[in-house]
Structures are given as C-alpha cells and as structure tokens.
Design goal:
Length: 805
C-alpha cells in the first residue's frame, strides 16, 4: 500500500548515502567481533569509580556444544550487560565453564570404557582431564560469534576473566567455604538413610531426585496374623524389601481391618514378627488396603520411619547389592532380588496374583536410574534451621518474572532433611579434612589453598587433640552444587579482595533456568547467606524453555533440534539476537523457535539498514535548528520509545521495546515520516526555507541515532556499524538516550494514528482510481489540526489547493 521510499540511488544535488554497502551482510559481524576482542573493549576496569553491575553467568559444561537454550540465555545476558554499560555501570560479565562432577566423569567412563573404581584415582582423574582437554574451544567460538561482550577471553584471576570451576583457585574457595561453615558449627557427619543412585554410585540430595512413571508389577502376597493364624494379603511393587518390613498398616477408617489393631503380622519367607496398626498413610482403595512399611522403599517410607521412630533395616549395601539382612537375596542386584523373591513366593504358594502397574518412581536427575535408599555416613550442611530465613530471602529477592518466586517458596517449604554434601566420586572438589590416626579427631587445614587430602600430606603436623603426628586424608568429595553455589562469591572476589567484594555485593543478577531454582538458586542463596549473612543477589532472572514452532520440546528423537551453529552459519548473529529479544516475553512459559521465525527478523534489519542509507544522505547541522511541527512529532514518538526502553530494560524486558521499535521502523518512520519530509529534506525547487530543510535533516538523523542506541544492546553489530558511519563514534560507549522534556512538552495537534489514517486514505483513493501515488490532486480539504504540516502534506500528496476547516 505505502510507497517504497528509502532509495539507495545517488541523488542529484549532492545527496549521496554515507553507507556504502547496499545491504547488511552477516560477514560484517566477524571483523567487528574480532576488533572488540583484540582491543579488549569490554575488559573490566577495576579502577573505575562507576557503580558495579554484576552478572553471575551460569557456567555451561564444557564437553557439550552450546545448545539453543544456552545461546539464547547468553544473548539475553549480553543485552543486560550492554544496556548497563550504556547507563554508566562498570559491568562484571565473565565467562565461566563448569568442569566439575559427574558429566565429566561419565564422559571419561564412556570414552575409556571403564567404571569409577576400576582404575586408580590418579589415573581416573587423568582420564577426566584428557576428556576436558579434547573438549574443543567450540563453546568460546560460539559465544564470540554471537557477539557476547564478556570482559575477557583469557583465563585468569582478575575480575571478569574466564574461570573454570575445577581450577585450583575456584576449588580452594569451595574448600574455604567448607572450613568457614565447619567453624560456624553448620556441618556435621551422620549415618542416615539417604538417596543413593546405583548408576552414579553416590549419595544424592533430594533436590537431584525427579519422578518418572515406570512400568512395574503389583504383587499380592500373603502375610499371616500370628495371634489368629489368619492370612492377610498385601499388595507391593517391591517384594524384595519384605526383609525390611517393620510394620503393617491399614487406614483407621477401614472397617475390614479394625480387628487387626494391636495384633502381629508374620512376614513371608523371613518369618519376622511386626506390629499391625491403623495409620492414615494407608489408602483404603490402594491394593488390598493393607500396606507393608519397609525401610527405604521410597521417600514416604523414609518419612514414616522418621515419624514412627522405627529402627530401619538396611538391606541394600553401598555397592548397590543386597546385603546380609536380605537372607537368600544376599549379593543380588535389586532387580535380580525382585525376581528371586517372586520365585520364592511362588514356590511357597504365597503369591496370590501379579498385575501390571505404572509406578511413579524416584529417579536420579542425571543418570535417570531408579533411586535406592541406603544408610551411609555423610556430611550434612544444616538447612532445616534456616528455612524461615530462606523464605524471608525468597520474598526479598526480585524475581523476573515475579511468578517464578513461587517455585522457590514451594521448594523451601518441602525441604525435610539437611543437605548431604559429600559424594563418593573422584572428579570434584575434595573435602579438605584429615583425621588423626590415633584419636580420629578431624583436622582442618588453613584456608587459602587447594587441598587433595587423598594424596597430600596433612598441612597440620600434630593432632590438636592428642598431639599424635600421623594423619590420614578424607577421600570423599563435594556435591557439585556445593561448588556452583559460590559462583557469585567467586566472581566478586569474596575472601580474596575484601574491598572489592564489599563495594560490589550483592551481585546484581543471577540469570538461570527455571528447572534449577531448587538447586542452583536455592543452594546459592542458602550457602552464601550462611557465609556472609546477606542475600547474595538483588535480582533473579528466570528464563524459559525453548520449544519448536508447534510448542513441542526439542529433542533428538523428534528431530526438531535447532543448532545455534547452523543459525550462525545461515544468518549470522543479528537476526537470532533480534529474535531472542522479540520472543523473550517473560510472562510466557516457552520460547518458540524455528529458522523461519529467525529469518523473519532479518527483514526488519534490512529495513533498518535501508532507512539508515537513506537518512545518511542528509547530514544534520551541528546546532539543533528550530524544529518544524512534523519533526517535533516524530521526535516525540522517538522520545516515547526512549522512556519505554529505559523502564523495560531495567526490568530485563527486551521484548516490549524491541517489538515496539520494529513496529515504529516499519509503520511510522519509514512509511509515513520519511514520506512526509523527504521533499523538504531534498529541498530541490520545493520552496522550503533553509531552516525548514535543516529541521528535517536534523530530525531524520536524530531519530535514527536514538533508535540505533536503543537497539544497540539487542543488535550490537549492525548498530555499531551504522552509528560509526553516521557519527564516527562507538555506539556502545555512548550514553543510553535520556527522556527529552522539551520534546515531551511540545504541543502537537494531531496524533500518529491521525497521520497514518489521512495518508492511507489518500493513497487508497488514488489507487482505487488506478492513479499513481504521485498523481496530482486538484483540491482537498483536511481537518484543521493538520494545518501545521500543511506544506509537507501538500508536497507529499501533490495537492494543488489544500484547505482546512
Ligand atoms: Zn545417577
Ligand atoms: Zn589425635
């Protein structure tokens, strides 16, 4: 409908575009990114007095290529960083790489075809290191190509340098945090039932347990009532745990079993005598309504045993095999034991029937193995006594979007035991402890150094309790979350540079995924509060899941995964970045992605490029001229965008401004404003004065410059290039535009909608008559409010006689 305006043709009268390239080409991005990197333009300046804005970047695992979710998260974080630099902040934005823990160990086990424990610890660690060395610098390369403005591209110990969570510096801070928490009396060792993953071979925390529906068999088996000899039938999916049964229960409202209260049940095969009791835990309509309570069948059982103060019988050993408490099942895996137990029950005619069922089973979040419950001695960090404080901090923390807060609150409310922090693995931070050979007293080393007690000599030469001089080292390591939960302390130099930490904390923002609120966010807030007494973050930005165009989760089996490297290859970074901003609506729960959607944003970038080429034909005067009403109007529209962008960007909302700017470029600036002023800007035999021409040139340039500045955090390459051509300056080091009071107060008698309506009507009329848009209109009458831009409209629509009423 609207005419094509922004020409790239050379115009008579010396009007020539300053921007040579006819179109935006993705190849332009690479030398720009290289320049930023080589000149270290975004290095953190520790001497600067500007306020610090810090981003606790989520360290991605190194042995996997950057996936679409990480690419989008880092692009959005880069927008936070670039916006804050333009608002006068000294931004801490480091790249961290998580290299600790199970994923690395599992990769090593796979690569070398071994299991932990089959080779020496030293050798196993060597294998993990070789896996890490091979993991290419693909992660860094992807971030570089996406235009992420990390402070530094080298490893080191200065603020903003790339850090590795398995470095001696990082691990020593993890160990220091343990020593501090120990000295505060917040750590203890206890033998209790815990989640054990047979696949990972270690204890895991409740936070790492997820649920999966797994097909299973419901077995009705026969128990005997000791006092009466009567047979009772109990349904169970875990017959191998009969040996740990400590009580049989029925619902207090269940009339069928009232007479059993206070009697004794005898377990099949094992002949153990256990009490029969009414308890609301038993559901009347589940199975036969009778339930055997075993130590450690699932989390409910664990809670029941704690509540009833029953002594648990542990039948599964730390090697994952049935132990001496399981009689004939001893030495079998859990799965084998289940089969064997069914055989025995059939033999003794104690199995009534078997039925297929779906069992909601707790599984390990990482390896997806069903969890077992075994008793082990582990270190715990006290968290139960801080639940009230954690709820208070969860309410104080600013969540973006606020609805994510509830996930954290629900998790805190559900925490029922202290945090088990020790693990029986190798590639992780060692627990810095030695023990006296004689009196077993634990001995802590001094802080500030990285220790490997399984091979290092104890740095303390005498037992502080008995004076004996022989010690042996602890061989367990920490839960990975015990490492990850100090990331804001690490990047802000806690206990390494007190002055800087004091000046920079709390950390400004923790960006992270929703699925790790109960682990990464919760543990960080907890542990850093226990260490510093403060809430470590001001804001928490919680991002979405990326799904395909139909709202389906991306997965290998569906074949709908979009690889960021492919996006970069096809389109470069900028269309992807604009897509991230436009799609990034925090109020939604997912983020829809397809090549078509990304390609769609490319059109807007091309439009902006063309607009800039056109505008650059009309250099502005150094001094602001007296402005004409049409020019005041467009500057007023731009000012509204400035206000909106400032307000939204501070709340990590890039979606609203990016959407409005896109609309503004297409619908207002290019289609209407440029059409209105172009004759005046060219000013060739059109009868406008020099001041009127200067006003047009000023408004065209000023609007464009501000639009580029607002877009600079979103599209750093394209805006950098255009702004440099237009002004000779680096846009990323300009100040973010401020609201303009003078423009806001200017009285414009018409609205943007009015202008769009009037122009569209005139164009439509000409088109309907089969005329060209340039064709002459003999005479026309318009509402009076347009009289202030009468001269512009007259020339724009080629009206011979224009009147107003
Ligand atoms: Zn596991
Ligand atoms: Zn001693």
């Amino acid at each position: 409908m609207e005419p094509k305006n922004e020409g790239n043709k050379k115009k008579k009268g010396g009007h020539e575009s300053k921007i040579q390239e006819k179109r935006w080409d993705k190849e332009i991005e690479i030398p720009i990114a290289q320049k930023w990197k080589d000149k270290k333009l975004y290095a953190f300046n520790k001497k600067s007095k500007k306020p610090v804005f810090s981003i606790d970047t989520p360290p991605p695992y190194v042995n996997t290529p950057v996936h679409i979710g990480q690419a989008a998260t880092y692009v959005l974080m880069d927008m936070f960083a670039r916006f804050r630099r333009m608002t006068g902040h000294n931004v801490v934005f480091p790249m961290g790489l998580d290299r600790n823990g199970l994923p690395i160990e599992m990769a090593a086990e796979k690569k070398f075809g071994i299991k932990l424990g089959e080779v020496s610890r030293e050798k196993f660690i060597g294998m993990c290191k070789s896996v890490l060395e091979e993991s290419s610098s693909a992660t860094e390369e992807s971030f570089f190509r996406l235009g992420i403005s990390f402070n530094s591209w080298k490893r080191g110990n200065d603020v903003g340098d790339i850090y590795h969570t398995d470095s001696p510096e990082y691990r020593s801070l993890t160990q220091d945090s343990f020593i501090d928490l120990w000295n505060k009396g917040l750590i203890y060792e206890d033998n209790r039932i815990n989640n054990f993953c047979p696949g990972c071979g270690t204890t895991i925390a409740d936070a790492e347990v997820i649920y999966k529906d797994i097909p299973s068999k419901f077995n009705d088996i026969i128990f005997t009532v000791k006092e009466t000899g009567e047979k009772i039938i109990i349904g169970t999916t875990r017959p191998e745990l009969v040996c740990t049964c400590a009580m049989v229960i029925f619902n207090p409202k269940d009339d069928r079993y009232k007479s059993l209260e206070g009697k004794t049940a005898v377990t099949p095969i094992f002949g153990r005598e256990v009490p029969l009791k009414a308890h609301p835990f038993a559901e009347m309509d589940k199975g036969t309504g009778l339930m055997m309570m075993c130590s450690a069948g699932d989390l409910t059982d664990i809670r029941f045993f704690r509540e009833m103060k029953l002594e648990p019988v542990i039948a599964i050993g730390s090697n994952g095999l049935m132990n001496e408490h399981s009689g004939p099942l001893k030495g079998l895996t859990v799965r084998q034991a289940r089969g064997k137990m069914i055989e025995l029950l059939v033999e003794k005619k104690l199995l009534v029937k078997q039925k297929d069922t779906i069992h909601r089973t707790p599984v390990c979040e990482r390896s997806k193995d069903p969890i077992e419950f075994i008793s082990m001695k582990e270190f715990y960090l006290k968290q139960m006594e801080s639940k009230g404080k954690m709820l208070e901090l969860a309410k104080k923390l600013n969540f973006y979007s606020p609805k994510s807060r509830q996930i954290m609150i629900d998790w805190i409310n559900s925490v029922s035991i202290d945090w088990p922090i020790s693990r029986r693995r190798y590639y992780a931070t060692e627990i810095p402890l030695w023990y006296c050979e004689k009196c077993k007293e634990p001995v802590l080393p001094p802080k500030g150094k990285y220790y490997q007690p399984w091979k290092d000599a104890c740095p303390v030469d005498k037992c502080p309790k008995c004076g004996h001089n022989e010690m042996y080292g602890e061989d367990r390591v920490f839960d990975t979350w015990f490492d990850s939960s100090i990331s804001p302390l690490y990047i802000l130099k806690y206990s390494r540079d007190d002055e800087f930490f004091k000046r920079s904390s709390p950390c400004s923002v923790r960006p992270q995924g929703k699925e790790i609120i109960r682990t990464w966010l919760y543990y960080t807030v907890l542990k850093d509060y226990l260490l510093t007494g403060e809430l470590i973050f001001r804001d928490a930005w919680i991002n979405y899941h990326i799904v395909d165009d139909n709202g389906k989760k991306m997965s290998k089996s569906l074949g709908n995964i979009i690889d960021p490297q492919e996006i970069i290859k096809r389109y470069g970074a900028e269309p992807f970045r604009m897509w991230c901003a436009i799609e990034g609506n925090l109020e939604k729960t997912d983020f829809r992605c397809s090549f078509e959607r990304i390609e769609g944003t490319q059109k807007t970038l091309t439009k902006l490029w063309n607009v800039a080429r056109f505008v650059s034909m009309f250099p502005k005067t150094a001094k602001k001229p007296k402005l004409e009403p049409a020019d005041q109007w467009i500057l007023g529209e731009v000012d509204k965008l400035v206000r909106k962008a400032r307000k939204c960007y501070e709340k990590y909302d890039f979606h609203t401004p990016a959407t409005e700017i896109k609309h503004f470029i297409w619908e207002t600036f290019a289609s209407h404003y440029i059409e209105i002023v172009k004759t005046r800007a060219y000013n060739e035999n059109s009868g406008f004065s020099k001041q009127e021409q200067e006003s047009a040139c000023y408004a065209l340039n000023h609007s464009l410059e501000i639009i580029l500045q607002i877009l600079a955090p979103v599209n750093p390459f394209l805006t950098y290039r255009l702004y440099e051509e237009l002004t000779g300056k680096d846009i990323h080091f300009t100040e973010f535009p401020k609201p303009d009071k003078e423009i806001e107060n200017a009285k414009i008698p018409f609205s943007t909608e009015d202008i769009i309506e009037i122009n569209s009507n005139i164009w439509k009329e000409k088109k309907d008559k089969g005329e060209s848009l340039k064709s002459e209109i003999e005479k026309m009458e318009l509402p009076k409010k347009f009289s202030v831009i009468g001269d512009d409209l007259k020339r724009m629509h080629n009206i011979r006689k224009l009147t107003f009423k």
